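4.2 Preliminary Data

To establish feasibility before requesting continued support, the project team ran the inverse folding procedure on a target of 341 residues. The structure was first converted into the token representation described in Section 3, and no sequence information of any kind was made available to the design step. The complete token record follows.
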């Protein structure tokens, strides 16, 4: 699902990345991100300046290990097509995690999920401060450190490895997150043996060194999607091939330093030990054709969080791309909220 008059690559260009400076543990850093707000019209989709202060920040979207903020363009496009003052959506941000896009890598070469969570809030505080200052007509500081007004509780969304980052952020500041959505969650290998953790880590790093981001994209891109074995129409086949080309394009843009840090985090993290402590509403969903985080793995996350697991039929790992409309419904028009125990 994407705008009928725009291809995925056109949306990629339309929602061009912005950059926000923030203060990190090692000094001034920056985070790149894409964003949307209801009521965008005309030839320019992405606004050049922050949205008006009357438009609340409602959702932040966190991508997976072989991806980036551009993976959320269909959700951003849906938001931009809504009428202004749409109750279910305000400002929606999609970050490039530290070390991805134009974002500064983390200081620790082997960071934890909590390190990403800390960077998330440092960036979001800075973004809110920059937005608030722009509304008063004053120039934003180089690296704002705190918001002028508190951020209203928001919906935090993670995909794959981004689920570890999102969950850690939600636990770090529970008062700031009202709902957590985990799509095709990667559990991590923190509860596994040291031998298995090292094996999974080294395999990823070896492939990165041997193939580079483009080679990895060519080799692994197809695994991100579910290719139906049923008879497909010509338009269905064309849509699948467009999705596949787009997934490979995003994966080929991955920065080796950011991917390396994320690989270390994945090897040592354990999502199952985190979700049980969540105080906010929780939703867990994944595709029934996901071969990277299979149904049983995602069901284990839902069980740990004491919520139902929602299956997205006909979708692979990149469910926010392949089942974009279903994910939009889940993010912006959810059913009754379920509180995590």
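Position-by-position output of the design step:
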């Amino acid at each position: 699902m994407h705008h009928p008059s725009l291809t995925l690559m056109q949306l990629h260009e339309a929602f061009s990345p912005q950059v926000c400076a923030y203060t990190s543990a090692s000094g001034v850093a920056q985070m790149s991100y894409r964003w949307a707000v209801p009521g965008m019209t005309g030839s320019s989709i992405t606004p050049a300046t922050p949205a008006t202060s009357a438009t609340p920040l409602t959702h932040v979207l966190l991508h997976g290990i072989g991806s980036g903020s551009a993976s959320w363009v269909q959700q951003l496009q849906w938001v931009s097509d809504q009428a202004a003052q749409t109750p279910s959506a305000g400002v929606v941000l999609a970050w490039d995690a530290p070390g991805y896009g134009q974002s500064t890598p983390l200081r620790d070469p082997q960071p934890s999920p909590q390190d990403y969570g800390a960077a998330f809030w440092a960036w979001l505080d800075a973004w809110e401060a920059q937005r608030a200052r722009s509304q008063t007509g004053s120039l934003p500081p180089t690296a704002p450190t705190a918001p002028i007004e508190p951020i209203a509780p928001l919906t935090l969304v993670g995909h794959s490895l981004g689920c570890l980052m999102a969950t850690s952020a939600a636990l770090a500041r529970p008062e700031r997150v009202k709902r957590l959505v985990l799509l095709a969650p990667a559990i991590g290998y923190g509860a596994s043996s040291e031998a298995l953790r090292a094996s999974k880590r080294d395999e990823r790093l070896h492939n990165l060194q041997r193939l580079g981001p483009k080679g990895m994209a060519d080799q692994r891109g197809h695994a991100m999607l579910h290719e139906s074995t049923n008879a497909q129409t010509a338009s269905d086949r064309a849509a699948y091939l467009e999705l596949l080309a787009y997934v490979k394009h995003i994966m080929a843009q991955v920065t080796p330093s950011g991917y390396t840090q994320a690989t270390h985090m994945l090897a040592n993290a354990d999502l199952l030990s985190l979700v049980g402590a969540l105080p906010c509403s929780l939703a867990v969903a994944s595709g029934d054709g996901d071969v990277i985080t299979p149904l049983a793995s995602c069901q284990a996350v839902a069980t740990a969080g004491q919520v139902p697991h929602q299956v997205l039929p006909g979708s692979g790992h990149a469910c926010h791309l392949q089942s974009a409309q279903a994910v939009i419904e889940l993010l912006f028009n959810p059913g009754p909220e379920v509180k995590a125990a």
